[in-house]
Predict the structure.
Amino acid sequence: MDLRFSKEDEDFRSEFQAWLAINLPQEMRAPEFWRGKSDDEQFQIRRDWEAGKAEAGYCGIQWPTEYGGRGGTPTMKAIYDEELAKANAPRSVNPLGLAFLGPTVMAIGTDEQKRDIIKPLLHTETIWCQGFSEPGAGSDLAALQMKADQRGDDYILNGQKIWTTNAMHGDKIFTLARTSPSEGSRHAGISMLLVDMHQPGVEARPLKQITGESEFGEVFFTDALCPTAEVLGGEGNGWQTAMLLLSFERGSSAIGQYTEFRHQWDLVANLAQQLERDGQKAAKDPVLRQKLAASLVDLECLKYHSWHILTQTSQGKDLGAEASMTKMMWSETFRKVSDTYEAVLGTAFQVPDPQPGLSLEELTTMALWSRSCTIWGGSQQVQRSIVAERVLGLPR
Amino acid sequence: MKFQLTDEQRALQDAVRSYLRDKFGPQQIREVYDNPDTDGVPASLWKALGEQGWLAVLVPEAHDGMGLGLLDAAVIARTLGAGTVPSPWLGTILVGEAVRLAGSDEQKKAVLPRLAAGETKGAAALLPTGSLTGVPATTTNGTLTGNLGLVEYAGVADTLVVAAQDGLYLVDPADATITPHASLDRTVRLATVVLDGAPGERLENSSPGVLEEVLDRAAILAANDLVGVARKALSDTVEYDKTRVQFGKPVGSFQAIKHHLADLHLGITMAEHAATYAAHAFDVDAADKHLAASIAKTKAGDVASEATGAMIQYHGGIGYTWEHDSHFYLKRAKRLEYQYGDASQHRERIARLMLDSA
């Protein structure tokens, strides 16, 4: 048992902290900075900031140097995530490309794909969307219907994708489509295609979420074109490619999530010391004290769990289905902290500014956002089945 | 960054496990269960605990102990919990900890070597019944008075450690009125202890800080026992539900059951992390050690309660019979869940630590 980081890791932390101190202006760290700016403006600011960060070499922390990464360790990646969260840095504009597409291309892409995709991805020159879900294929991904018929050197795509993150900002989309009839297995005949979103046959429409924002949208394909060379992992291997792609989430330690949610908890605890409940501060209410403590218990457990994950990945172990537990834990803990926030506010949850000088817009948005995290990327129910069957070994 | 047990700690865990598997399994537990009038300390078990050094783990080498840390003791506690093992192990460890932390050199010399060897047994009365604050005894002119409530293994103890308003005291059980009392969890023996002007030997370096430290250590060891109980309850249930067939399928294939078992696995895993970290936090004197102790006890109590209840539920009718081992786990969890502060009391303590200091 030794919870200290190595000198190299601590040096990296200091170096990155110093870079952030200079290159992440204080006003950008405050929630007010983003208020009143349009979705497009916000996205552009984030994109530019991330490009600058990449230019300075703070990108692709665990990616090999030959692809423009830093060639770092899982611990360095965890430190990087933690420091970004501590600094309240803007969210990445390319979360799905960085988490999923990049590692998959490095693993099984052609030389051309590696050359064309990796660097523009790291430097936010290309914003990548993930086109997996369809109206009839959410948790049951293999029910997907989108068609891709080959005609000469192109596939002609027809179908619809939905709940697509950054749909309105995407340049390209890695998407699953049926390139041949599924013979016998629903997993057969699927290919992963890399499609240009800037063409007449592709139309993105925003979907308004319960927060009022449109972080995701729908993408309609009507005779859209995709060159046959733009298949990732080979024609007909789409299901296997998708499973490989999703497996790259496994290494995530969740330390970034812990840092972010712990900051949220600290703000909620602070609110409880300001707001009144039954003639005293909410922080004195015995039931709210229990709730605040209970959510802190799970938060700290999430931190210990992230140390466990980091220990395993640093020793080169593949977490396998255990990664589902990490997803379950951070998303449930986020919900619990958000529930606590709502309970501390009580009737004040209905308004963005319950007291003069107290603006809760971002915390309320965050509380609502927590509702999505137990759905996307494999719903809580799907994760439970994975843990039950593949970790505990219970029968299907 | 290594958040895992050392090779030595894993070897210790294996040694305790092997001993229990070979020498003190369900049959031996059942004998203790079905004979509640015995002293609840099987001689061969107690001898082994002493010989193997499992009572000496926290005693400094200068006093014939092993001089290891709380995490090493936690490894033993967790394994004893998984085996629902009886014995005054915890009480003996806690008397040792009180003397190690609050005793003078003479007091350590007099008490620790004998505890470490298993020559004497200890019992601890550190809190008023049902409380996580206050002390159970008061002192006047060097004598102690108070109803200490139910004390584990007071009937077999050679030394009692008692918390009073001005410190920790060693009391000779011969100077107390000790009345055996039936216990729901029969992997323990209980007795009520009443002191009425009993002589006591004050541990010379006692302070409120030391008492808090001993209480935290007690809570952490109880938490580790509880996660051992919870993990074994879950793994036995999973194995049973893989093979128990109803409606033509193994019941473990039904989502109503498997999803709950998955949730329990997650919860127990987190409680294991918390119980491990809390012990380590005391070994390195971490800034958040008091918080960590309360987190561990809260999480362990909650998951052990749920897992042992689920064990009965997902074994169906057989799980409700005396013949099945389920009730060993449920009853042990119910005992330890409320000991050294229950989940709500520790959450309130967390609130005090985190909200009231500001």
